[in-house]
Design a protein that fits this description.
heterodimer, A: 277 residues, mainly alpha, MetI-like fold, 2 domains, 15 helices, B: 385 residues, alpha+beta, Rossmann fold, OB fold (Dihydrolipoamide Acetyltransferase, E2P), 6-stranded mixed β-sheet, 5-stranded antiparallel β-sheet, 10 helices, 30% strand, elongated
Chain lengths: 277, 385
């Protein structure tokens, strides 16, 4: 009895030690960014390792972020672009996934295979064609060019299809007999059971597009249209590029919304992830 | 008051890919208000038939009429058919109240009318206490009642029930069975009820349809199928236990069954003519129609057997015995009956018989006769179509 208790304590301590080591590895660069954003320039390049700033340069660094760049504009752009992407992705993925999971039709397997294949194609592959298309249409430097390439998410369709497959076919059939149309069945009967999946997907997609630098870099040159990461790039180019304190302050500002959102929704998020089978 | 909606199926066929026939041409007329039970082993096509009637699957050929409407190609939502599924298929994220009310919103009813109807159905099915619960908070029996409620609230022209009791425990099953029958009688709505349980078939049905491998074996009232099964399969399916099957040989105006013998003169007239000219026949003896032959049973078929085991069920007991007249080819018989049969015979009796041997008799008119193909002889089977 005592032996078992001891071994379970050892197992628990080991597990937590491993997890904590992982947490330290992941959090250190982040913490470093925060601390650097609080240091004045001369201290950043001083030899020797000082974890805490000796002089506080935070006010100046953060002040520069907001005075030298339209940071609020960047954040607003980020919210508009990511919000539009996620909403449109879900609007398109739900009916598509429902059809693939619950409506038998000729060629369904082929469609699904094509969607799986498209999961393997990164945005870099069609980016030239997309760029030319947007340029021809005069849509460069617009929200449309930032949002449209991403509104069909093969991943969302795949994820939701797997969830919808688990939904009992009889309930769908009962709804058909109860005179519901297919769209209504998809949105009002089947979708509520996939809420955790939708939530988890929304978080993933939001984070990916909020942090995306590649595509905004391709289609946006006007700082007015820049998303937060692109804004930081512009900020660096404008200045000498050596003011790391201010750069880290900018990086802190743009990652703050996601961190606050995550902390607020932590429980829901974890539940959503763990319920995906 | 009772809506007249009879259901007519004409040569309905269905096969899935690769030429596997699920349903051979199927004909059925369910009279208005009739309760038809489709029964058969799993995979016999009974659930498929239900889905075809509901419009959830397309038929290959044939015609379906409901009332005076041809609904062969109608969408499910155009059919005015309500279905109760084996796993109840309640809308999982809605409360009982919403589950009941949801189908009504499609019928463009006003809110007060919906509320009133929900209250009425809830009262009928004793759901008042449960209205604000979700399906996950209900027991099996309660879910079943909600599923029934959702079906009747729409006042459909036809009810389809797909094994509605199979997820309930035995005691509840008997109870709910009675409730379903009462409800159907009260509403007078035509009902097609699918089950693999012959007890449900016998207790509920106005008429039973026995299906095997997508093919109708017999259609008729349960008592009639019990008394005059069309073939060995139907005989074995309907009844607490399958009949005891023996092989008989027709010789010179009598049938020899091992040591025993039965002169034609003791048989009913129709049997006599049908048996004449045959050689090999099968006899089916219902276990509950055998009786101890202590007294004089002049014209009865008499069997002698050695008891191998007994089981006691309440005030009856099943006595298992073997006899020298036992049928030889059990493999063949098992195939015809669609179930595994042994050469051990059964006698179901209320006697407290304890001996090592039995001497049993059966009235000639209680014996079922089948030809070598398993088809009934001498009983002009009921309306097979």
């Amino acid at each position: 009895m005592r032996g078992r208790r001891l071994s379970s304590i050892i197992a628990s301590v080991t597990a937590h030690a491993v997890l904590m080591a992982g947490a330290v590895i992941m959090l250190t660069p982040f913490l470093w960014m925060e601390l650097t954003s609080l240091k004045p320039p001369q201290e950043i390049f001083r030899l020797g390792l000082h974890i805490l700033p000796r002089e506080w340069g935070g006010a100046e660094n953060y002040g520069r972020v907001f005075s030298d760049t339209p940071m609020l504009r960047f954040l607003l752009n980020g919210i508009v672009v990511c919000g539009a992407i996620v909403i449109l992705q879900i609007l398109i993925a739900v009916p598509a996934a429902y059809a693939l999971a619950k409506i038998p039709f000729r060629g369904r397997g082929l469609f699904f295979a094509l969607i799986l294949v498209s999961l393997l194609v990164p945005i870099q592959v069609p980016s030239l064609f997309l760029y030319l298309g947007f340029a021809r249409a005069g849509l460069l430097d617009s929200y449309a060019s930032l949002v449209l390439p991403f509104i069909i998410s093969a991943f969302a369709i795949f994820l939701l299809r797997q969830h919808f497959l688990q939904f009992p076919q009889e309930v769908v059939e009962a709804a058909r007999l109860d005179k519901f149309g297919e769209f209504e069945i998809a949105w009002r009967i089947v979708l509520p059971s996939a809420r955790p999946a939708i939530g988890a997907f929304a978080v993933f997609s939001m984070v990916a597009h909020w942090n995306d630098l590649y595509w905004p870099l391709v289609v946006v040159t006007d700082p007015e249209m820049a998303t937060p990461p692109l804004g930081v790039v512009f900020f660096r180019n404008q200045e000498s590029g050596s003011d790391f304190g201010a750069l880290m302050a900018a990086a802190t500002v743009i990652s703050a919304p996601l961190i606050i959102a995550f902390l607020a929704a932590q429980k829901t998020f974890v539940r959503g992830l763990t319920s995906i089978r | 008051m009772i809506a007249m909606h009879k259901l007519v199926l004409r040569s309905v066929t269905k096969s899935y890919t690769k030429g596997t026939t699920v349903l051979k041409p199927f004909d059925l007329v369910a009279q208005s208000g009739e309760l038809i039970v489709l029964v058969g082993p799993s995979g016999c096509g009974k659930s498929t038939l239900l889905k075809l009637i509901a419009g959830l699957e397309k038929l290959d050929d044939g015609q379906i009429l409901l009332g005076d409407r041809d609904i062969t190609d109608a969408e499910p939502r155009q059919r005015k058919i309500a279905m109760v599924f084996q796993n109840y298929a309640l809308y999982p994220h809605l409360t009982v109240r919403e589950n009941l009310a949801y189908p009504l919103r499609r019928q463009k009813l006003r809110m007060p009318a919906i509320t009133e109807k929900v209250a009425m159905v809830a009262r009928q099915l004793r759901l008042e206490e449960l209205l604000d619960r979700r399906p996950s908070q209900l027991s099996g029996g309660q879910k079943q009642r909600v599923a029934m409620g959702r079906a009747i609230i729409r006042e459909p022209d036809l009810f389809l029930l797909d094994e509605p009791l199979s997820n309930l425990d035995a005691a509840l099953r008997t109870h709910v069975r009675g409730e379903i029958r009462d409800l159907q009688r009260r509403l007078g709505t035509t009902m097609i009820y699918v089950t693999h349980d012959q007890v449900e078939a016998q207790t509920l049905a106005d008429r039973v349809v026995i299906l095997r491998d997508g093919e109708v074996q017999q259609i008729g009232p349960p008592q009639e199928i019990y008394a005059r099964p069309a073939n060995i399969f139907a005989a074995a399916f309907l009844g607490a236990a399958p009949p005891n099957f023996l092989a008989g040989r027709v010789i010179n105006g009598r049938i020899d069954v091992g040591q025993a013998s039965l002169p034609f003169s003791d048989l009913p007239g129709e049997c006599r003519t049908a048996l004449a000219g045959r050689e090999q026949v099968y006899l089916g003896l219902r276990p509950e129609l055998l009786r101890a032959a202590d007294d004089h049973y002049g014209d009865h078929l008499v069997l002698h057997g050695a008891v191998s085991s007994r089981e006691i069920v309440g005030n009856t007991q099943n006595v298992y015995f073997r006899t020298d007249t036992a049928c030889a080819d059990m493999t063949r018989l098992s195939a015809l009956a669609g179930r595994y049969l042994t050469d051990e015979l059964v006698w179901t009796t209320e006697n407290s018989n304890t001996g090592d041997t039995v001497k049993l008799a059966i009235r000639p008119e209680d014996i079922l006769f089948f030809d070598a193909e398993g088809q009934a002889i001498g009983t002009h089977g009921s309306d097979t179509l």
